[in-house]
Amino acid sequence: MKTKFFFLSAVLVLAIALAACGPSNITVQTQPQLRTITVTGTGLITVTPDIAYINIGVHSQDLSAAVATADNGAKAQAVIAAIKALGVADKDIQTTNFSIYPQQQYDKDGNMTGIIYMVDNVVTVTVRDLTKLGGLLDASVTAGANSINSISFDLADKTDALSQARSAAVTNAQQQADQLTSATGVSLGDVQTISYYDNTAPVTIQYSRLDAAAGGGTPVQAGSLQISTTVTIVYEIK
Hints:
Elements: H1 2-21, E1 36-47, E2 51-62, H2 65-85, E3 93-106, E4 112-127, H3 133-143, E5 147-154, H4 159-184, E6 188-199, E7 203-206, H5 212-215, E8 225-237
Antiparallel strand pairs: 1-8, 2-4, 2-5, 3-4, 5-7, 6-8
Helix pairs in contact: 2-3
């Protein structure tokens, strides 16, 4: 009986406390859900490249590591001298790989017959005068280069091109938002978020040397470079 009495007393005290607070002291605030529309716009600018990057290498091999290294060093020095003779500055010639490694040799029965030592020396050359590019490639090969994998064309300063691409992307996104809201009978409100991504990858082509004696030099065309920006904008709609 005492337990039941205490339980009823507690319930009575709680009821009195809630009644004292009154309904006017309890408020619930709700925010209207924000309606939005998300659009993605693209801006594309086509420019003419004005700079090129080339990896020019010398590969040597011999049964003697010392002989292979000496041969490689002499040819690499000749290649660098030929590049500099065409007006390329020291700051635009950078060694990006030098390696010596053994390669085991086997006969037709799978028996090892010996070891040949391979030596590679690669420099990355920045060419700022593209009119000299074909001659530079020919001069490098003539001097001893035998490893030219690719040429990358780029724009030295992308500031203006990126600005144009971003503006074009925003305009494209706004046009889409206007069209969609007009078609659905709503209106655009304030911009909620903006995000963007720039794509400025250089154009890379594979280099294949033509016969300079027969063709008068290696023809190289820089072509065009496309710089694009993608913008995603979230608008409030009313």
